[in-house]
C-alpha cells in the first residue's frame, strides 16, 4: 500500500519540463544553410523514455510531437512571426501542426465504458474525459512559441502533428519550415528535414 501511495504521489506531482535546446546541427535529423548560418533540427518524441517528459502519452492519442530547434549563427536576428511548419508523409499527405484546441478536443472526446449502447429508457453511463488544467498548461508551454532567434542563439519548441490512421508516420517523411526571415525581411529558402536521418541515428 505504501508503494502504491508513493507511486500515485509521484504521478500526481509530475510536471512537464521543456527540453534544453541544443545546437541544431547536433541532432541527427537537421538541415543547414551554411551561407545564411542558420540550421534547423528535428527530434520526434515518438516512443521510449523520451515520451515520459509529458504527462500525456500523445502517440497513444494519435499525435506525433516533434521537438524543433532553430540555431542562428549569423550576426543578425531571425524573424519567425510568419514561420509555418508542415509534416509530409511518405505517401505525400501534408499535415499542418495541430492547435491547442485540436489537442484538447482529442483528449476530452466523450467515451463510455466498453463503448456499449442501450436502447432508451435504459440508463446509459455518463461520458467521461476532460482536459485538466495541468494538461492545458503543458500543451501551451510545449508548443513552439518563439517569434525571433537572436544572433548566436537557439530556440526550440514542439509541433504536434495528428498522425492518427497512419501506422508508421516517420519512415520516408519530411519536416518543412517556411517563412523564416532575416533582419531585412527577406525570406530564407525553406528548410527540409528528412525524418529518415532521425531513424538512422536512433538505430545506432
Radius of gyration: 20 Å
Assign the CATH topology: Immunoglobulin-like
Q: Helix/strand/pairing class, anyone? A: alpha+beta
What is the number of helical segments per DSSP (H or I, 4+ residues)? 4
Largest sheet: 4 strands, antiparallel
- The N- and C-terminal alpha carbons lie at a distance of 41 Å
Q: What is the name of the CATH architecture?
A: Sandwich
**Strand proportion:** 25-35%
The neighbouring-strand order within the major sheet is 1-2-3-8
What percent of residues adopt helix (DSSP H or I)? 10-25%
Count of domain modules: 1
Strands, count: 10
Low-confidence stretches: 1-12, 111-129
**Overall morphology:** globular
Mean pLDDT: 86
Order of helices and strands: HEEEEEEHHEEEEH
Indicate the CATH class: Mainly Beta
Which helices and strands occur, and which strands form pairs?
Layout: H1 2-13, E1 30-33, E2 38-44, E3 63-72, E4 78-79, E5 84-88, E6 94-95, H2 100-107, H3 133-142, E7 148-149, E8 153-162, E9 174-178, E10 191-194, H4 195-202
Antiparallel strand pairs: 1-2, 2-3, 3-8, 4-7, 5-6, 5-9, 9-10
Features:
19% helix, alpha+beta, Immunoglobulin-like, 4 helices, four-stranded antiparallel sheet, 204 residues, disordered N terminus
How does this structure look, described?
The protein is of the alpha+beta class and 204 residues long. It has one domain (19-202): Sandwich (Immunoglobulin-like). It is 19% helix and 25% strand. The chain is built from 4 helices and 10 strands. The strands form 3 sheets. The chain has a 4-stranded antiparallel sheet. Strands 6-5-9-10 form a 4-stranded antiparallel sheet. Strands 4-7 form a two-stranded antiparallel sheet. It is globular, with a radius of gyration of 20 Å. The chain starts with a helix and ends with a helix.
Amino acid at each position: 500500500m505504501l508503494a502504491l501511495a508513493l507511486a500515485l504521489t509521484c504521478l500526481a506531482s509530475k510536471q512537464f519540463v521543456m527540453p534544453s535546446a541544443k545546437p541544431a546541427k547536433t541532432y541527427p535529423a537537421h538541415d543547414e544553410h551554411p551561407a545564411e548560418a542558420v540550421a534547423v533540427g528535428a527530434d520526434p518524441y515518438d516512443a521510449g523514455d523520451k515520451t515520459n517528459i509529458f504527462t500525456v502519452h500523445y502517440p497513444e492519442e494519435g499525435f506525433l510531437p516533434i521537438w524543433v530547434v532553430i540555431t542562428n549563427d549569423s550576426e543578425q536576428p531571425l524573424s519567425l512571426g510568419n514561420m509555418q511548419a508542415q509534416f509530409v508523409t511518405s505517401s505525400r499527405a501534408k499535415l499542418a501542426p495541430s492547435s491547442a484546441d485540436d489537442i484538447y478536443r482529442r483528449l476530452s472526446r466523450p467515451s463510455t465504458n466498453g463503448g456499449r449502447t442501450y436502447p432508451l429508457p435504459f440508463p446509459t453511463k455518463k461520458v467521461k474525459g476532460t482536459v485538466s488544467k495541468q494538461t492545458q498548461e503543458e500543451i501551451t508551454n510545449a508548443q513552439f512559441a518563439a517569434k525571433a532567434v537572436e544572433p548566436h542563439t537557439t530556440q526550440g519548441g514542439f509541433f504536434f502533428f495528428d498522425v492518427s490512421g497512419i501506422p508508421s508516420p516517420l519512415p520516408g517523411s519530411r519536416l518543412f519550415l517556411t517563412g523564416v526571415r532575416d533582419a531585412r525581411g527577406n525570406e530564407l529558402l525553406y528548410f527540409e528535414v528528412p525524418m529518415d536521418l532521425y531513424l538512422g541515428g536512433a538505430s545506432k
